[in-house]
Amino acid sequence: MTTFEWIIALLLGAVVLSALARRARVPYPTFLAAGGALLAFVPASPSWTLEPKLALALFVAPVLMDAAYDTSLRDLRRNWLPISTLVVAAVGVTTAAVAVLVRWWLPDMPWPAAVALGAIVAPPDAAAATAILRQVKLPYRLMKILEGESLLNDASALLIYRIAVTAFAMEHLSWSEFGSSVALGLLGSVAAGYLCGRLWFLLLPRFDDAPSAIILQFVGVFTVWIVAEHLGLSGILTIVVYAIVLARTAPARTPARLRVPTYAVWETAVFILNVLAFILIGMQLRPIWTRLDDAVRLQYSEIAASALAAVVLARIVWISIYGTSVRTLVAQGWLRAGRSFRLPTLKGGIIVSWCGMRGIVTLAAAFALPEGFPYRDLILLTAFAVVLGSLIIQGLTLRPLILALRLKEDDFMAGEVAYARGAAYRAALEEIEGDPSEEAELLRLEYRGLLLQADGDPNGGLATGELPADPVRRRAIAAARDAILRLRESEAIGDDAFHQIEEELDRAELGAHG
Prior knowledge:
Layout: H1 3-24, H2 28-39, H3 52-69, H4 73-78, H5 80-105, H6 111-120, H7 126-133, H8 140-169, H9 175-203, H10 210-230, H11 235-253, H12 256-290, H13 294-331, H14 346-354, H15 360-367, H16 376-393, H17 398-405, H18 412-431, H19 438-454, H20 471-489, H21 495-512
Helix pairs in contact: 1-2, 2-12, 2-16, 3-10, 3-11, 3-12, 3-15, 5-6, 5-8, 5-13, 6-8, 7-8, 9-11, 10-11, 12-15, 12-16, 12-21, 13-14, 13-16, 15-16, 18-19, 18-20, 18-21, 20-21
C-alpha cells in the first residue's frame, strides 16, 4: 500500500473505532489506543516518524486551545482549592512516585530521566474523562473540577518535564538560576498569552470568509506556541491564557456564519490529532520492541506495569488525603464551607480518583524527548502502556462506577440555561416592542409564546420560526445575543450555559439569513 492509501485506511479505521466506542459508551481514545497497539505488530505497516521537537506543538497546542476556549473562569475561581491541589499536588505526588519506583528498578537511570518519565505520565487526559462524564449526569461542581484540572495539569506536568530535560542537558545548572528563570518564564507566559490574545483581534476583522478565518486560527495557535518556546516561555501556559482571552472577546465579534463551521472544524481537528498521536506512537513501538532481547522486554514490561499501578494508586492516595484533611479542618472550624468552597464527599472523591485516564499529552511528551535521551525507548514504552492501561482499566469501568454510586444529580446547569434563555427572549421582545410592522407583530407573538414555554421547559430551544428571514428577526436575535453576553460578563451564568444559548442563537441567526 502507498502512503496515501495507508492514510485513508487508518482514518477510516479510526472513524469505525470511534463509532464502536460510542455504541459501547466508552471514550474513543480507549479504542484508538488499542488500535495503535495492534498497529505496532502489523508487519506490513508503514514506519512514519516525526521530528521530536514538533510533537508538542502539533499535538498539544490545538488540543489545549480547544479545551481552554470552553473553560469558565467563574467556575475555576469557585473551585480553586480542589483544582489547585489536583494540578500541583496530585501531579507532583504522581511524578515523584513514578520517578522513585523507576529508580528502584533501574538504579543507574539518571534522576532527570526518571523525573521526566514521572511528569510524562502524570497529567490525566481531558477528552477521555469528559467523553464518559457527558453520558451520565454528575453534579455540576464535580464536572467543573475535573475540567479545570484537565486544563491546568498539563501546564504543571510539562513544566516539571521541561525542568528535567533541561537539567539533563545542563549538568551544572544551579537551583537559584533555574528558579529565577522559571519564575520569569511563568510571568512572561501569562503576559505573552494576554498580549497575543489582544493582538489577534487587530487581524480578525480583515478576514470574513470561513476558510481563511479558520486557517488563520490554526496558524495563530501554532505561531503563539512557537514564539513562546523560542522566547524560553511555557508554551502550555501561553496558549491557555491566549485561549481564555479569545474566549472572553471572540463571541461578541464573530458572526454565526463563521463560528458554526469553526467549531465543527476544531472538533474534527482534535479527533484527527488523537488518531495521529496513537498511530505514530504505535509505529515507534515496533522497532523498539523488535530490537530488545527477551530479558529486557520482560524487565521493561514489568516497569511499565508497575508505573501504571503507581499512577493509579498515587491519585487515589492523594485525593483520599485531601478529602480527609479538608473534612477534618472544617469539623475543627479552621475552614468554612460556602458558595466558593464545598465540603468534599466520599462518593465525589471516588469518582475524581478514578478519572485518571492518560492520553494525547502523555504520548506527545514522550515522543518529544530528544534522540539520545537516557532510556528513551523505556520511556516511550512505559508512556504508551500507561495510556493504554488507564484507558482500558478506568475508561471501561468509570461509567458503571458512576451508575453504581448513584450520585445525586443537580439541576444547576438546567437552571442557568433556563434563566439565560428567558433573558434572551425578553431582550428580543424589548428590541422590537415599538416596531409597528406586521413582521414585528408576528415575531412578538412567537417570542411571547416561547417565553411562556421557557420557564417550564429548561431543555427547550430557541426556534428559528416559520416566518421568512427579515431584518426584524435579525435585530431581535442580536439583542438576545447581547443579553447573554452581559449575563456571562456579570457571571450570572457560566460558560456552559452561555455556549448552549449561543449555539441556539447561531442556528436562529443562520435561519434568519436564509
